[in-house]
Amino acid sequence: MSDRETQPVERQLPTDEARDLLALVRDIAQREIAPKAAEEEDAGRFPREVFTLLSEAGLLGLPYDPEHGGGEQPYEVYLQVLEELAAARLTVGLGVSVHTLASYALATHGTKQQQVEHLPAMLGGGLLGAYCLSEPSSGSDAASLRTRAVRDGDDWVLSGTKAWITHGGIADFYTVMARTGADGPRGITAFLLPGDAEGLSAAVPEKKMGLKGSPTAQVHLDGVRVPDERRIGEEGQGFGIALSALDSGRLGIAACAIGVAQAALDQAVAYATERRQFGHPIADFQGLRFLLADMATQIEAGRALYLAAARLKDAGRPFAKQAAMAKLHCTDTAMRVTVDAVQVLGGYGYTADFPAERYLREAKVLQIVEGTNQIQRMVIARHLAGPESR
Predict the structure, then answer these.
(1) CA distance 78 to 245
(2) pLDDT digit string (tens) for 54-106?
(3) Is the Cα dihedral 337, 341, 343, 349 positive or negative?
(4) Which helix (H) or strand (E) holds 226?
(5) Hey, which residues are catalytic here?
(6) In this structure, what are the phi and psi dihedrals at residue 127, rounded to the nearest 5 degrees?
């Protein structure tokens, strides 16, 4: 690697507090996360101690109410924190995004009593969450989920299988969408399950092409009994809660994607200014300079897009279309930029001696999670032209 020092991203932040927060995050990322990232990803090791540190630093509940342990930061700040974490290691950035997604239902639709009882531990007590919507037979068609919750006195009994669950098997709590009524979106209800609930288990984690340090597993619910006090929102309200959570979660994925792309660009620039061919640094050659310029421009455009969507959310305005656009553009950008970064490094880019190949493998999953990019195009088109005629 080059000795050329990577310059921090120039950020527009709303307050001095936000600037101090980003400086803290960058310091943690550089000292505690990045140095171990390659080795631990290769070994498939989940860095639970890093999440404990982030919790202690108040970084696992940034967008939520401080009354319950949150940081009361606007989304435009929270997302830039995610970007910094993902640039150091996607397992961490994505993990924080998923934890925030898992906390969303209770933080926004829980009763006052539920929030007082559970949120402090979820947001700042060292707990880690998982979000359970997808199933083996219902991914993009989430409204067709089959996991069922049956009322039994003051309890609910949940049975079924959830699939592609980040933190499956290691989470301390699971936000689960289950069917309590008829088929379709109006028959779905949200529940908060403790990670040690009897009847809850996880399959062996999936063997993935990238993001190996972040466990992704099926979660089995075999007659899991939970009291009605752990139902979130009204019966039949779960699908609306899930979609609302995903609008915010897609912004998290967009920010993570830009973090990965930025890390890839930084490495490509560092390598290009050091590597010499024909008596010159390869960064002197116009073809490569133009490639680096295009990579940087795509990243800046993606960052601007996700921040514009975040500012709409912070202002209380509709942002679902812009969230889908941000997720689509930023994750496609991450894919293009990481491919180009490997090309800049040439043969070295194809080896595990440099992280460019890891960035490429990780970028691919971001085009799939929390709604494939084909689904994002459907969402955007519906906002433009209305629902499809069938």
Answers:
(1) 15
(2) 999 999 999 999 999 999 999 999 999 999 999 999 999 999 999 999 999 99
(3) negative
(4) strand 216-227
(5) 370
(6) -80, 160
